[in-house]
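[[Encoded backbone]]
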Amino acid sequence: MRLPDFYVLGAMKAATTTLAAQLGAQDGIFMADPKEPNFFSDDDVFARGQGWYEKLFEGAGAGELIGEASTHYTKWPDLPDAPQRLKAATPDAKFIYMIRHPVERARSHAFHMIRKRHEAATIDEVAAAEPALWQYGCYAAQLERWLEHFPADRFLIVSMERMSAEPEAEFARVLRHLGATGTWSEELAQMHSAQMGYKVMPLEGGLMKLPLVRAMRRTLIPRGVKRAFRRARAIDTDQRFSPDIIRMLEERLAPDLVRLGEMCGVEVSLETYKDVVMREHLTLMSG
């Protein structure tokens, strides 16, 4: 049974879902469903055994490249075991690591946590309570764990900013790294954006999606109740971090971004990040 040829490692909230969808739409590429198996990172999933994981790729055709996209693979230190586990299973794999301005990634991460927890909170409260908001945006620290097990030329770093500005060119670069061909779909690029401003409510992922239940919601629930429900779900996505939280995040993220630049042979900081990633590609140096 075949296993993946490549992995989209993360980072969380850096458009990995969009990239995975684009890859899965290409002839000659098979992507795992679900998008994030998290097999090598999550102990409870890893305990299901490699046989369970192999079944995710049973539908791959002969000669197709196989991939999956699990952002849990770059959630060190919370989930530290993915590199060595993955090396044992697929030692010849290639990797794509998507990045985004670290503070903006943290802001999107905070909204994600509010959305999933079904509770009222501000992004400042989430940032103050959750080290993951800055830890998962320490790109150099995440990559250094992987470079202990794989050579630098296996990794392609892609910025969300450049993919947003130059999607066709950046996607072509991803495909070249994988040894594949294909075309970018603007329609797929818009997926999931409409739901990001709303909390996920209890039962929404299961019972509420059943056809009969959805039909009843459309025909039996008054419009006023529907509007009230939407207001209850709404997240204020105009929130910005306070100056104190910005300073805290910058203190933790700035040194790591400098380190990433050193690993790629360029000078980059939080202030210059966008100019640098739009001007040149960050490429890990060997050695």
The chain has a mean pLDDT of 88. The radius of gyration is 20 Å. The first strand starts at residue 6 and ends at 10.
